[in-house]
C-alpha cells in the first residue's frame, strides 16, 4: 500500500529527504535507484547505466563525473562517504529546474555537472588527507560525515599529520613495533633476545649409557627354545593343530612348555646422569623461540623532560602501534604517565572511541614529573588478564626515572611466569640505571634531536658515541638486572 515509498525502508534516514524531493525524474525509479547506487558505491563501483533516477539525460553526465573523480574508490566500505556523494549528486540534479528559465536544458545539465565537479575537487582533496591518516586508525564505517569533517578541522588531526610525517623518517622504529607481542612464532629472531641462562643451568652433568634387556619382548632373534608361548611358536608346531591326531600331541607339548618357539630379546639403551663423571660446559645455551605479533602495552612518559623532540617520538610510537594493531587485529593499550598520581589508561581499539582516544593523545601536552612505578604495576596487572596475556610492554622515555625493588621483583615474576618482555625506547643520549633495570632490550633513537621543532634543533646527531656510557665507565654501579645491557 505504501508503494513506491516502501523503498525508503532500506535507506539511511539521512538519504530520505534528498530521495523524496524528486524535482527531476520520478519518485518510483529514484527510490529504487538510490539503493542501487548506495550498494554499488559501498562496493567501490558505479551502478549500471539504467540506474538514472528516472532522467537518463541529466544523470549520465553526473555519473561520468563521479567516475572521473575516483569517488567510487573512496566510497568503498565508507558509508559516510557514500551518503555524502549521493546527497550532493541528488541536490545538483534537482537544481535543473531552477536554472532552466535562464538556460536551456542542455546548458543547465552542463552547469550542474560542472558545479558538482568543482565542489568535489576540494572535498576529495580533504578526504584524501583524512583517509591517508585515518586508514588503519579506526573503523571508518562507524563514523558519520560530520564527525570525519570534525576530525579534519581539529588541532589534534593536524598534530597527528605532523607526527605521521615524523614517523615516515623512522623506519627502524616502525619495524620494532611490528615485532612486539608473543602470539605467533617469528620467522627470524628480533630485537628482544631470550634471557641469559644462569651459569649453573648451563652446566651439563656427565652421562653414561645404561643397557636394559627384556626377555621374550619383540626384538633380535637369538635362536630357538622350548616354551608355551603360542605367539612365538614355529610354523611346524602350528601345523599340528590341523591334524586329526597330532593336535593332541600339540596340547601335551604346550602343557609341558615344550613347544618349539623363537627366542627373542629386546635391548633398550638410555642415557642417565653419572655422578662419577665430571660435569662439562654446554656448547651453547638453549635459545628461546622468538615470538611476535601479539598485543601491545605502551607506557608513554609524558613528563616535562619529554617536551619537544622526545614528545614527537613518543606520539609517533603510539601512532604506529595503533596502525599496526588495527592492520593485524591486535590489542593496543596506552598508559600515559607523568608525576605521582598522573596516569591515564586508554585502549586504542578499532572503534570510534579508540580513534577519539588517539586524537586526544595527539593533542596532549607533555608536562609534570616522572613516576614510572605506577604504570609498570598497572601493566603487570594487565598481563595477568587473558586478553593481554601474550602482550609485550614498551616503555618510551628519556630514562629519567627509577623503580622500587618491590616493583622490579613483580616485573621479574611476570617475566618468569608469563614470559613478559619489556622493550625500552630510549629518547636521550645515554642509558640510565632506571631504564636498564626494567627493560630487556633498549632501542636507542640516536638522532632524536632532529625530530624537534626547527627553532629548537641543535643538529641531528648525538654528542656521544654510545648509549652505554654508564656500563662502560662505571660498570660497578650496575645492578644485576642492569648488567644484561653491558656491551659485548
Which keywords apply here?
two-stranded antiparallel ribbon; 12 strands; 6-stranded mixed sheet; Rossmann fold; 3 domains; 488 residues
Helix content: 40-55%
Biggest sheet descriptor: 6 strands, mixed
Spans where pLDDT lies below 50 across 5 or more residues: 138-142, 189-202
Q: Number of helical runs?
A: 18
The CATH homologous superfamily of the largest domain: von Willebrand factor, type A domain
Strand percentage, roughly? Answer: 15-25%
**Order of strands side by side in the largest beta sheet?**
9-8-7-10-11-12
CATH fold name of the largest domain? Rossmann fold
Oligomer: single chain
Explain this structure.
The chain is α/β, with parallel strands linked by helices and 488 residues long. The protein folds into 3 domains: 5-151, no CATH class; 203-281, no CATH class; 291-485, von Willebrand factor, type A domain (Rossmann fold), CATH 3.40.50.410. 41% of the residues lie in helices and 16% in strands. The protein has 18 helices and 12 strands. The protein has helices at 16-21, 27-42, 56-68, 71-75, 79-94, 96-99, 105-134, 145-153, 155-167, 171-178, 235-239, 246-255, 309-327, 352-362, 373-383, 405-418, 433-438, 469-473; strands at residues 184-185, 203-204, 207-227, 259-273, 280-281, 291-292, 296-301, 332-337, 343-347, 392-397, 422-426, 441-444. The strands form 4 sheets. A 6-stranded mixed β-sheet has the order 9-8-7-10-11-12, sandwiched between helices. A two-stranded antiparallel ribbon has the order 1-6. A hairpin with a 5-residue loop joins strand 8 (332-337) and strand 9. The longest helix has 30 residues, at 105-134. The N and C termini lie far apart (84 Å). Residues 138-142 and 189-202 have low confidence and may be disordered.
